[in-house]
Each structure stands twice: as structure tokens, then as C-alpha cells.
Amino acid sequence: MKSIIPLILISLIIAACTTRPPETDNRYPVEIIDDKYLVEKTNEESKNIFAMESAIIEKNRERLALEKKINTQVKLQAETEKELERLKEENKALKDQIRSYGKSKKNAANLKSKKTALGKNENQIKEITALLQYRQLENDYHEAELNLINAELAVYIAELRLEESKIATIYRDKRRKEQEENKEENKDEKKEEKKASLPRISAQTDPDNKYGYKRFSKYLNKAEKDRTKAEAIYKETEKKYLDAKEAIGELN
Predict the structure, then answer these.
(1) Which of 25, 67, 101, 197 is the most exposed place for a label (fewest CB within 10 A)?
(2) Is pLDDT at 130 greater than 50 in this prediction?
(3) Does residue 16 contact residue 63 with C-beta atoms inside 8 Å?
(4) Do residues 77 and 30 lie in contact, with contact meaning Cβ atoms separated by under 8 Å?
(5) pLDDT (0 to 100) of residue 194
(6) Which residues contact 202 (CB under 8 A, 6 or more apart)?
(7) How far apart are the first and last CA of the chain?
(8) How confident is the model at residue 197 (pLDDT cuts 50, 70, 90)?
């Protein structure tokens, strides 16, 4: 029975592509190894592949949960910004009223009341402004965390593809040897091979890239470099966020 896991992984990759920054759109190796080349996996290889696939699915769950959290924070940020704008408008109105009441001694009581309201308003503006700055750092932190998760997901997928390519190479080498030993019995398979998108092996073919699988090593190499960069950005952003969080706690 053909595994449905690869289909799930493809859907995860496509979904991930819609949420990543444009500069990382090509991070994921979307190509898959045909299942027909993986039918002779050993029990140990099957367990290893299953563990790698499970890790990808779990990492994707982390990504989805964090995306949901970020979306909630963005909405909260927008609401807080509206509240700040309202306070600023109120601040302007209070200052206009104070200037108006200040022209007459009859409005001394109203003047005092408005000045008290203005003081409270300006304190609220300072608090909301500080809160917005903190939330922006929090959003930056979670965005960096999401970018790191995407980078880790890319590494996991590339590792899986590379592992599958090794299994597929063994299988295809075995079949090719059988073809060479008995060409007549393998005419149908040779015809099918001619239709394949990958080039047939020739004297000039790179022995380490007989079936075009060398690209998976390149994917992994690039993914690991991207992950290293994402980790550095995450750590830097995390420090700023935690420092701001500590400062907010001290104010409270």
C-alpha cells in the first residue's frame, strides 16, 4: 500500500510557501522521490523515514500555532493603536478647552478639572506608547521565531529527500545491473526509462549524480545555511524582547 505521508508533506510545503517572505520562497525542495524507487526499504530505513516525516508534521504544527498567535497579536496591536489615536484626539480637545477656560476667571473650576483630566490623559498616552513599543518587539520576536521554524522545516524536508535519494539510488542501481545482465527481459523498463525526465547514465555522467539526486545535497546545504542565519536573527530579537519584557515588569 502506498504511503499517504508524501502527499501530506507536499501540502505542508505548499502551505508553508504562502506564509514565508518572498526571499525564501525557494527554500523548500518540492520535488519528491517516486515511491516506486522506495519499495525495497529495510525495516530500519522505514522507521527512519517515518521518524523524519513525523518530525516534519510536528514542526509544521508549531508553525501553524505560531502563525495563529501572530495573527491575534497583529489584531491586538491594531486595536491598541486606535486607542492611542483616540487618546491623542482627546489630548488635543482638552488643551483647546484649557486655553478657552483660561481666558475667564469664572471657569476656574472647569479649568482645574480639565487640567486634571489632561494629566491623566498624558499618563495614559505614555503607557500606551510604551505598550505599543513593547508589543512591536514582541511581534518582531515571534516573526523571527516563525522564520526559524520555517528554516528548520526546510532542513527537515531536505534531510528526508536526501535520505530517500540514497534508498532510491540503491534500488535503481540494482535494477540497472539486472538490465545489463539480461537486456531482453527488461525492454519494457528501458522504454519507460527513455521517457523519464532525468538523463540516462553515460560515460560523461557524474557518478555521484547518476539520477539527478545530487540536488538534494545542495538543498540541504543551503537550508542549513539559512537556518544558521535565522538562528542568529532569532537570538538577537529574543534578547531585545526579553529586555523589554523585564523593563515592562519593573514599571508595573
Answers:
(1) 197
(2) yes
(3) yes
(4) no
(5) 56
(6) none
(7) 60
(8) very low
